[in-house]
Amino acid sequence: MNSTHKYPGSDWLKDQGFNMLQVLDTARLPEELIQSLIELGVEVRKRPRLVMLGMGGSDLWNRVKKNLENSPDPFDDDAVSSVCKLALEFWECSEVNLLYPGPLPLPLQKLGQFAGWSYPSPIGIDLHPCYGPWFAFRAVFLINIPLEPSPQEKGEAPCQSCETRPCESACPAEAVQNGSILNLQACVKQRLLPHSSCGDRCLSRLSCPVGKQWRYPDEQIAYHGRRSLNSLRHWNQKFQDTVQ
Question: CA–CA separation, 204 vs 165, rounded Å?
Fold first, then answer.
């Protein structure tokens, strides 16, 4: 767990594959984050704690992959049921406001950066100091009980000490440049090419040296990559239909 404080249910969470947990005091969130949440209709000031659950590595995948054929979104389904059990059974929390997964475009990267979970990178996703690019948010929710806030994660921005920058040379679209944000247009164009090597995986992400021991197995990389590619194709088709 990414906290020196052991919460009720911490061991259970870890066994489930949620090895990242952060409890934030909503009163200490940056005003920018608070305003972003308020604009989404989230009454963040009415709940004392905001909780984030995440996965680093493949433990959660190893459990959830058994249900891939039984649900269109097994990771989200599992996260929702896990949040309910954690809050009700372990924390005796009577009110849970689930923000993610869900339809709200939450500022996940900003939340992760504030908590010390992640740092910006040129490949378009943030890096965790330990897990590198091999981590993900799985749930964000508000609770009505004042659990002890987690200590803020402390670490170094991984890209600052990277000298070889293999992510740049690994990108066939030249969309990745250190010190710049991802050239999304070039990235998308490359991914949508027939038989693209970037279709269901990011070669720059695979080349990143940070957290290599936590790299997802190939089947998990392909699973997430195919879902992402299908969404991208759907979005591109809608765009083409609009402009024609």
Answer: 10
CA distances from residue 61 to 79, 126, 128 in whole angstroms, order as listed: 12, 20, 18
Cα separation of 2 and 38, whole Å? 27
pTM over cut 0.85: yes
Residue pLDDT tens, the chain, 244 long: 554 468 999 999 999 999 999 999 999 999 999 999 999 999 999 999 999 999 999 999 999 999 898 889 999 999 999 999 999 999 999 889 999 999 999 999 999 999 999 999 999 999 999 999 999 999 999 999 999 999 887 778 899 899 999 999 999 999 999 888 899 999 999 999 999 999 999 999 999 999 999 999 999 999 999 999 999 998 878 766 665 5
Burial class (CB in 10 A: 0-12, 13-18, 19+), 29: buried
- Buried residues in 117-132 as b, exposed as e (16+ CB within 10 A): bbbebbbbbbbbbbbb
Q: How far apart are CA 193 and CA 227, in angstroms?
A: 16
Q: CA neighbours within 13 Å on the CB side: how many for 188?
A: 12
